[in-house]
Amino acid sequence: MLRLIAMPAIAAALLAACGDAPGLGAGPAPAATVGETEISDEQLAQQAKLFTFLATLGQQQCGGVPAGGETQEAVCNRFTLGNMVQGTFVDSYAAANDISAKPAEIDGIIANLDQQLTAATVDEELGKLGLARADLEAFAGEVLLFQAVQGAVTEAGLGDEELRQIYDDEIVRFTTIEALHILVDTEAEAQDVYEQVTAPGATRKTFERLAKQVSTDTGSGAQGGDLGRAAASTYVPEFGAAALALTPGEISQPVQTEFGWHVIYLVDEQVTPFDEAKASLLQDDQGTLFASWLRDQAAAQGVEINPKYGRFDPETLTVVAVNSTDPSAGAGPSAGAGPADGAPSDGDEGTPAP
Fold this sequence. Notes:
Blueprint: H1 9-16, E1 32-34, E2 37-39, H2 41-57, E3 61-62, H3 72-96, H4 103-117, H5 119-128, H6 133-169, E4 175-184, H7 187-197, H8 204-214, H9 218-221, E5 226-231, H10 237-244, E6 255-257, E7 260-271, H11 274-301, E8 303-305, E9 311-313, E10 318-320
Antiparallel strand pairs: 1-2, 1-8, 4-5, 4-7, 6-7, 9-10
């Protein structure tokens, strides 16, 4: 039995963002039809094994715990099929926009998994489900493709102009400062401190000596008021704003916060360039934008689910169970079981949450 303290990071990543890229299925009754693309029972069965493998790593069940007499196989199939429907939209976008997964990144994902679990354990768990390394590598490629398309769709939805406005408005998030401060209880004390540290001939040494003598922040005071280097956003708003208004080597007028009155000496400031900050900005909004894009794709292309698996919910982008007196309803070809069934919210990156 697999013994893990916590789900490996790779398993969590795979479960959080997976989609299939099915081709045309054979037979008159596919598991699902997405636009002109059919997903066959055989493709679903193969993909369900991979989700089962990942669920096993997390000591979970594929799709969640069955309820209302439903089998684990049916739960896993619904979960898997919902991901495959979303993956069809992703695959089409990737093909149209020349997006692909890089082999080196695929190798990195597999190497990370091997490092966390050992290669022998990975091979053993794959073998239990009749899977091979090639299957896992292909699945990792699908994950990377899904993530790449998610980022591309989000960036296209926002655009550089809007992203730059967000960046400017939230510059405190992207600015790291190194500062000293002296904290006292009253404005009068702070004004006296300010006059001493800005008097003709005063230097940084003057500031540090006074911090050791009078600062009520005894932790930094013992270090000459040194607060070290930190993101400006980690400070209370009044302090962060006052520090950002300074240039290195400049000292602030007294600033009041909930902790008292501060005099701030800005030592250094580093701002993350916009091009480097874009990834973080896109991450903030990609859940909402990508889920909306997936819903638009579902509406435009159409999604039909074989009733034996359930029905497609265009709002949650998942396959949900249907009530039926037919005992075969909801059954399917899955082999195994895994994580909690769920529906993507706007913050779930558009993929069913395990």
